[in-house]
Amino acid sequence: MVYLRLEGLKISDVLISMILCSCPDIRTLILDRSVSFSNIPIIEITRFCLKLIHLSLNSCICLTNRYIIEIVCSCLKLRHLELGNCSIGNKAVEEIACKCTNLKYLSLEKCVGISEEVMKKLNPKISVSKPSAKIEYPDYSDDIWSNSTGRNPYFGYISGANWVVIGMLIGN
Questions:
Q1: Source organism's superkingdom (predicted)?
Q2: What is the largest CA-CA distance in the chain?
């Protein structure tokens, strides 16, 4: 297996650990907004996923500087790293700057506690989505389906690019 996406799922430590242990060839791992697991699977990433190229841990509340540092010290092939909306700070970013020599993309959107000084330590060739980046929503205020807020109440914004129906229109 080279691609594993467990985005937005309620997953146990045991399940993630078993998957990571039995699939050492994972190149892409996406655990965005996954809940119910602790730091144990994060440690398993450092032990079993040494071939990782793409790692996305956006909004994983269990992440700390310590675990990000362990990941970047073990997964030296990382080229794409997403840590948006995580509780990491300067220490983790400094380690990323030192250890992730192959990194091409780094997302730190909505991460607080990261100074501009530390951001300058990153390789200028890395495409960085900065902590202060804002998500911009399309303006559909002139649309006949829009409510008073200018957003359609029957649609939800997903991953910054796609609209997905989350409600049902009931006609007369």
A1: Eukaryota
A2: 62
Q: In the chain, what percentage of residues exceed pLDDT 70?
A: 75
Dihedral angle of Cα 58, 62, 68, 70, to the nearest 10 degrees: -140
Query: Is 57 in the same domain as 117?
Result: yes
128-140 b/e with 16+ CB inside 10 Å = b?
bbebeeeeeeeee
pLDDT tens per residue across span 80-102: 999 999 989 999 999 999 999 99
Domains contained in the chain, number? 2
Write out pLDDT tens, residues 17-34: 898 999 989 999 999 988
Instruction: Verify that 75 and 86 share a domain, yes or no.
Output: yes
| pLDDT of amino acid 13 | 87
- 123 and 146 in a single domain? The answer is no
Q: CB neighbours (10 Å) of residue 161?
A: 7
